[in-house]
Amino acid sequence: MQEVIIQGGRPLAGKVSISGAKNAGLPALAASLLTDDFVTIHRMPDLKDIRFMGSLLEDLGCEFSFQDGTACVRALAIGGNPSYERVQQMRASICLLGPLIARLKRVNMPPPGGCVLGQRPIDLHLHGLTALGCEIFIQNGLICASANQLKGATVSMGGVFGSTVTGTINVICAATLANGTTIIENAAREPEVADLCRMLVKMGAKIDGIGESTLTIDGVEQLHGASHELIPDRIEFGTFLLLALAGRGKLELTKMDAALCGAIIDALAESGAEFEEIGNFFIVHGERSNLRPMHLETLPFPGLPTDLQAPLCTLFTQICGESSMLENIYPDRFTHVGELRRMGADIVMDGRRAVIRGATHLSGAPVMIPDLRAGACLYSAALLARGESILRGIHHVDRGYEIFDEKLRKIGAVLQRREIMQKDGCEKI
Ligand code: EPU
To answer: Residue 85 maps to which CATH number?
Structure first.
């Protein structure tokens, strides 16, 4: 158990190299189960979640290696089922379901369950796979799925909120080895879904409409090995972009494709943010941006990502006037609000809308990080705040931000990690 101590209020400036995308890396690793050949994935971020998915693959009998940003998987002789102990620790384990059904014809795995973001159902995953001929029932807390021969079908992945990202991914993976043609309507258009499709095409899959809401997949008999480089992490990029604006620093974000972040860049530019884009360099001029209040809502891609909602709340505390943030994807994703308030933020909740009045001088405080993106929000708040903050629950941040502390230190942040000392059963700061 560790904690981070941040001395806030230091000017932030410099260069940050953006890592490969976690949410592209996780399904790419799972999809390597679709072949018995070697799959090599470059630009893989070194994150807890990625290492965890590697362990899940090893449990299933895969060879897995991961060094210097390159992961290599060979699923030659695989078998068994993902265990409850593993699956309950990472929701993205659900990405194994489609590849395992396609490859092994049968799998029993626990549903990942809810999390701090809410219930997070998987009905659409199961509905999509059932449409492809998979027989699925839930027994003894397990999804029991079998399909001797998956068959192409027309399936819709849309729900009331839009579409499901990992649900679309599961159906794509299953459809690549199904008999006949699958048409996926209301497919999630997130760049991570498109990235996975590009990797699958390199493995021999036949997919049309990549990046669009209708995908056509002609099943093939088998897939082969391939080498693929992941797209940059648009959420990590957005996190640093927002931090630069909130802290009025100039940051140069490198190895990024800004086209993946159109919604956030457009919204910020409209409110007065100044940017420069030179090739894959993206310069955020926080030092000369005078932001006006914003009223934003999260939406499926190409809309504003829910994963940036919490870091946006931190930015809004630094803008003069009233801003608001409506959460459409996960109505309960506001666990950061209480902690931000303790640091001095003026936030009123109105259903799934946070109304934030700024500009506020945040002050350092001990805070508890409840989940990954709330972690990005609270790290940012602590960096802006006057005085010292002590952040606990930082393992959440390590799940999704590669060498976050090191990247922050390079741009001027003053922070250090230390072990939490236990005394008489109590944690001692
Ligand atoms: N939903 C259903 N039924 C389903 C599946 C989803 O009703 O069967 C609902 C959810 O309750 C939610 C909405 O659909 O309201 C979107 O959920 P989705 O299935 O798209 O989320 P996910 O695939 O489980 C991925 C990312 C999340 C990101 C969301 C939304 C990965 C591994 N995870 O989750 O990332 O927030 O899409 O964009 O790709 C994160 O990185 O911190 C993170 C939580």
So the answer is: 3.65.10.10
One-letter identity of residue 190: E
Q: Which residues contact 218 (CB under 8 A, 6 or more apart)?
A: 152, 180, 181, 206
- When divided into structural domains, the chain yields a total of 2
Q: Same domain, yes or no, for 206 and 265?
A: no
DSSP letter at 118 equals B
372 lines ligand 1 (CB under 6 A): yes
What digits encode the pLDDT tens for the residues 202-239?
A: 999 999 999 999 999 999 999 999 999 999 999 999 99
175 and 63, same domain (yes or no)? yes
Q: Is 134 a catalytic residue?
A: no
CB 57 within 8 A of CB 64: yes
Among the listed residues 62, 72, 95, 115, the single catalytic one is: 115
Mind listing the pLDDT tens digit for each residue in 377-425? 999 999 999 999 999 999 999 999 999 999 999 999 999 999 987 654 5
Spatial contact of 56 and 93, defined as CB atoms under 8 Å apart: yes
Segments forming the whole domain that contains residue 421: 2-19+232-428
pTM for this model (two decimals): 0.96
